Model the fold of this input.
Amino acid sequence: MKSTVPATRVTWPTRSRCSSVVRVPCSHSWRTSASSSEADVRFTLNLPPPALPTGGWRFLFHPSEAFSMKHPLILCSALVVSTLVATVLSAAAAPTLADFQAQAARSKLRLELPDYPRTADEISNRTTAALAEADAALLGLASQDAGKASFASTFGAFEEITGRVSTWANHIGTLAESHPDKRLRDTARDAGQRIEAWGIALEYREDLYRALQRWADTKPALDAQQQRLVDFTLRDFRRAGLALPPAERQQVELLRKSLSELERQFDVNINEARAPLDFTAEELAGVPATLLNSPGVKQPDGRYRVMANITWHVAAVQDNADNAEVRRRVTVARGQLAREKNIPVLAKLVALRAEIARRLGYATWADFRTETRMTGSAAVALKFEEDLVKGLQPKFVEEVETLRQLKAAHTGQADARIEAWDTAYYTNKLRKEKYAVDTEALRVFFAYEPTLRGMFAIYEKVFALKFTQIEPPYVWAPGVQLWIAADAGSGEPIGAFYLDMFPREGKYNHFAHFRQNLGRTLPDGGYQLPVSVLLCNFSPPTADKPSLLSHDNVKTLFHEFGHVMHNLLGRARYSSFNYAGVPKDFIEAPSQMLENWVWNKAVLDTFAADYRDPSKKIPAETIEAMIRAREATEGVAYRRQLSLGLMDLGLHTLSPGDAWTTDVVELTNAVGARVSIPPAADTAFVAYFGHLTGYDGGYYGYLWSKVMAADMASVFEAAPNGYLDEKIGRRLRDEVYAAGHTRDVAESVEKFLGRPRSQKAFLQYVGIKE
Ligand SMILES: [Zn+2]
Done:
């Protein structure tokens, strides 16, 4: 579920995608001369009372992070896990959960597993009880005797109460995505919605805000982490409008409800947009049979129906159709999706956001949205994007010229130009003709078990850890494994993680990390250890073959397990500052950094070997060819990303006055034309840009973290042992993972880098060599 400001303190753990999904591509205008005061009237009438996220709470528990890869749902085979389980169970002195718990207790660490509910009724009942208990505790907080209040009875209590609800939401959120029983999954989702609504209402609790503010006003002596918790908690209430006079605040709440309704409409219009185009077989020359033979594509008149609203249909045509006019028609139809309905909605959305931001004391919506991010302001985000546009310019120009020459040779027209409908086609041609790598053939090097063990060995070495599989007291489905991570030096447990790695009917069908228990200091001074779950969907083994991963799967595995590491290695006192407590434009960076490992021969050679003959490693030239193929079109791809980020920032840095009069299509098409391949005439990509609800004012974050990931990876690259360097790994563990958000992330990253941040490593990564 998307929300105006998704980072509520207590929300249902909806997943955010790790990889950005870019919908392909505009002129239509909607103008209004309405002033901002008219806007109030227009948007505050006849409002339904939707559950409405508002303020800017940093999230306490997070979403999982998910890749957008579709996998078929295949009934799970538990075969895969049998080997490892057998190995562990047959070992004479296999450690048990109790052993690890006893060891943890000796160091004042508490290793507890989630107490997952076993039935749908249990979920309902325990959710009701958890919310009632939290409500009673919050009432106690709000109504306490101000003269006797303390940090523990105010901000400490607030953190504790919301943390408990979040943890419960994490547990049932995972079951909602993975439990084999549909009724249980559905009940877990319903319970999640109750918790989300409860979390949203929390943001408007004036009694809580007053009690907290009253105590903060006494200017108590606090240590750094306590002060930070106080500052952020109050900031988030202010972001919800609670610092405003009552009448003003009610106005903002009403505007937010209007905004939420507009966002919903925008999403619905995208989902409902349809654009069928029929072509003859001859017109579709070059388009793969997978599209032509797909159910519903062949029409009774013998023609083939391409749906411009189905992304893979569009990609199949744009990548492969030899007929340029066919590609043009599909591209234009795509660029006109939802145009008539959504351009007016978007124009109002943008104006309303600008008005809400103004009322909350921000110059623009993007300033409001970035306040809680690393960038901190729209100006910093804009500068970042524009610097990157410049940095990529030579590569972009060079790549476009390469594509243009390919087109000139292909069409016989020396003065050919690359149009919006040519980019994908000639990119694909370039890859096939010049950088052919048979990625399917690489699967034999990545049998699931050696790959998993190989990755574990790498993370164990780099972060000085040891992973041990144990017999789980309970799992929600057969085949789910439980592992304990311990510090390699002291042997102390640092946390636990579950692996649910193969598809199953009804299971979440991407790849994602789900946070379970939150690391935090307990009232008795002990430390509660974090717990994670990985839900993956690797292709299951067959009777004669093990599960064989693609190179892309391996990259995903390294990325997602990076989130497990980030969660398990957090050592902040308050769970709000661990892992997902970091700014949203940073959370992906460490995991994106770890993706670099799978492009490195020294790393791959530690585990990747032909499962039929393990003496065979991936040839160096194959890895080189894959890197060259990746680099060949990164300039065009990232300039496209930048154009989307700049469209978003362009729309959301408008002043309230300008927002009402700006032509959103003209503005965004001009950005597209300046930064990327110019959009096709008479199209309005922005009407179909779904990330404008949810990632609004924050779309830049994908590249922001990617650039930081490359910067951080470069420290390993320069180290004596490269990606396997333990000294650098230790520094990452201490300065970035353990510190979490107990201090500004920029400071942590620079402590790790040992220098200021830079875009240089990213530009090298995309193939710009100095
Ligand atoms: Zn991720």
